[in-house]
Design a protein that fits this description.
It is a single chain. The chain is α+β, with helices and mostly antiparallel strands. It contains four helices and 15 strands. The protein has two domains: about 90 residues, no CATH class; about 130 residues, no CATH class. Helices cover about 15% and strands about 30% of the residues. The strands form three sheets. The protein has an eight-stranded mixed sheet with strand order 7-1-15-12-11-10-9-8, with helices on both faces. Strands 2-5-6-3-4 form a five-stranded mixed sheet, with helices on one face. It is globular and about 50 Å long.
Length: about 240
């Protein structure tokens, strides 16, 4: 199986990568773990209407709401036993641990897909509101989204779209503070049907993201409507495209 690497861009201007408790020989002094409920309670909460007096507003594993925390501190706690971590500059910020297998950022072409990236961004506690086909009835998914938004619960959901010459899927990740990130997956930015993991530079899958402000249960073809949407980051794309 071809394991060609793809570029990973965690912010528009590049990755904000932070060392995470590692030693010069690649070792680590801690294994990293999610925050406990008690630990979360020691930090101030934050939202669009409640900015942080100090630190950054971030969504971290283990906390039901976004908290004010220094990104380096969050990385030390969450990713202590791994190679490093990156900060996805959405709002709130997302802390992403970089594993040894990823080589410090890039992921394989096979991992540039929503079934892999949606759960990774949403977190283990997020409710799965479904993976919908193009013509599938969205009633149950919309009810799940509505309940999650009302309860302040993290969730994930996706729906296939009618692409012109490739597979196109739109996904959404909501966190416990009510912030929603929309992801758009294109199986091959050069066209030609399925995901192209060959060695052809510049062709293959891409996942881009945008920040959804004022999310509500969607109408018509959308599962979620946004009062405003702004481009946030490219999660992954083929080699040779980064920075273009």
């Amino acid at each position: 199986m071809n394991r060609r690497k793809l570029s990973v861009i965690f912010v528009l201007v590049g990755a904000t990568a932070l060392a995470c408790g590692g030693s010069s020989d690649g070792g680590s002094s801690s294994s990293g773990s999610p925050f406990t409920t008690e630990e979360c309670a020691t930090y101030a909460g934050c939202s669009v209407d409640t900015p942080c007096a100090s630190g950054n507003c971030a969504s971290v594993a283990g906390c039901m709401t976004a908290i004010c925390i220094d990104p380096t501190e969050a990385c030390e706690k969450l990713c202590g036993g791994q190679k490093g971590c990156a900060v996805l500059e959405s709002f709130p910020e997302q802390i992403v641990c970089e594993t040894e297998e990823s080589g410090g950022g890039p992921v394989s072409c096979d991992d540039c897909n929503l079934p892999t990236q949606l759960p990774a961004l949403a977190g283990a506690r997020a409710k799965d509101c479904g993976t919908l086909a193009i013509e599938e009835d969205p009633t149950a998914a919309r009810q799940c989204i509505e309940e999650a938004l009302a309860a302040g619960r993290a969730f994930r959901v996706s729906r296939s779209l009618q692409g012109t010459d490739s597979i196109v899927i739109r996904g959404w990740v909501g966190d416990s503070s009510g912030m929603v990130t929309e992801l758009l997956y294109d199986s091959n930015i050069c066209g030609g049907g399925g995901s192209d993991c060959s060695s052809n530079m510049g062709c293959g899958p891409r996942i881009s993201s945008s920040t959804c402000t004022g999310p509500t249960v969607g109408t018509e073809s959308n599962l979620i409507d946004c009062a405003d949407s702004q481009s946030a980051a490219t999660i992954c794309e083929p080699d040779g495209v980064q920075g273009s």
